[in-house]
Amino acid sequence: MGLFIQITSFVLIISILVILHELGHFIPAKLFKTKVEKFYLFFDPWFSIVKKKVGDTVYGIGWLPLGGYVKIAGMIDESMDKEQMEKPPEPWEFRSKPAWQRLIIMLGGVIVNFLLAWVIYISIFMYYGESYIPVNKIPDGIYVDETSEKIGLLTGDNILAIDGNKVEKLDKYLNIDLLLGDEVTVLRDGKEITVPLSDEGKKAALDSQGRNFVNPRVAAIIGEVKDSTNAKKAGLLVNDEVLAVNGAKIKFWDEFDTKIKANKSKEISLTLKRDGREMVLPVQVNDSATIGVRLNGQKANERLFVTKEYGFFESIPRGFNETINVLVRQVKQFKLIFNPVIQGYKKVKGPIGIVDMMPTSWNWYFFWSFMAMFSVWLAFLNILPIPALDGGHVMFLLYEIIVGKAPSQKVMEIGQIVGFVIIMSLMVVIFGNDIWNLIKGA
Fold first, then answer.
1. Residue 348 lies inside a defined structural domain of this protein
2. What's the whole-model pTM score?
3. Per the domain annotation, does 432 fall within a domain?
4. Which of 51, 70, 165, 253 has its CA 20 to 30 A from that of 103?
């Protein structure tokens, strides 16, 4: 059932985004009386799942879920319909329209993607608000694991700024900003210092999926006691708070974790707080330096979180800023992708990898947040000046508007072929990553 929900979420998100993106081309084309021959969700090499002609347009669903397209008459596109282009232009063809109309048609999809993300973020802030941990509420600093220490941070640091930009809240973007940044300013042992962010550390963080590698230092509150473990046998329960190990007081989970590792294969005594009273329980640490418990991060953090509520008019600029912030971060990610040390290209996910990211139970907040993020991503990718993408057509149209003459049909055809080869090469890398990750997972 979990896999079904993951696949359904992904297909539904992609379907909505593709349909709206293509409507961004379709509607202005119709307004400018340009013939649209096909409107397809997904691609249809060799055959379609379903298709129906209404007026001049064939509407259909293809079998290859890698996007969608509208085929506009009189336009050099991936169909490479040279026969039609060799005929004299008809007034209802794309090539017969003024350059400014063709520019609007080509920009329509990107504009719709951007506006859709903005509307979704407005709705999210109105309905859910914004939850985060203010940096000034974590006086004890952050906790980082051994992998994340390679980046340059230490447990107990207070993060003040990244690349000179002040950090005011610890939220889902802080980890991303650290990966994309060059240096971080922290308060360490009472001194303000600036630390370079190590490429080797970023690679290690990405190799460990880069999820929440920086967290506030929190109390040692047990969130899970695994079955058939020493913790279970000793009588530890969920929500027990560890106050001391072998009589030595502790305050944070990282201190508890360090004590456990230091007592490998030994019996220890834990002083616990349960339902307002203290007790001491003996626990045997196993040979792998664990006892079988996990942190209750939610309970430990709940006292730190604040939720900011937004009204409709407040949500509009906040939603716009969030859309821009997501776009900027996506552009910056190319620093990781092409960095020879970090080798971020190995972590790029295709459809298989994205499905694996989806929650196994239905989550509307994730659904809308992911759709907004992916809509911005599609807008950015499509506006890249690569022939065969919207941005490639826009590039040629801007050339025509500036120079006063369109590139030759031969140049357009060669550009389309080059763009197609680039896109297919990228798809091979992306699907190769997905398949390789599946093999490693298996």
1. no
2. 0.82
3. yes
4. 51
Can you give the pLDDT at residue 387? Answer: 80
Q: Is 380 left (phi over 0), alpha (psi -120 to 50) or beta?
A: alpha
Lowest-confidence region among 44-58, 62-76, 106-120: 62-76
Give the residue among 351, 349, 424, 333 at the shortest CA–CA distance from 386: 424
Q: What pLDDT is stored for residue 324 in this prediction?
A: 96
The total number of residues shown for the chain amounts to 442
Instruction: Quote the Cα angle for 76-77-83, to 5°.
Output: 50
Q: Of 269, 301, 333, at which residue does a domain stop?
A: 301
Q: What is the domain range of residue 428? A: 2-126+371-441
Rounded Cα gap, residues 391 and 388, in angstroms: 8
Q: Do 243 and 190 share a structural domain?
A: no
Tell me the pLDDT tens digit for each residue of 389-415.
Answer: 888 889 888 888 888 887 877 777 787
Residue 192: predicted pLDDT: 92
Whether the CB-CB separation of 103 and 383 falls below 8 Å is answered with no
Q: What is the pLDDT of residue 135?
A: 81
Strands 277-284 and 248-249: unpaired
Domain count for the chain, please give it: 3
* Residue 81 reports pLDDT greater than 60: no
Q: Do both 8 and 90 map to the same domain?
A: yes
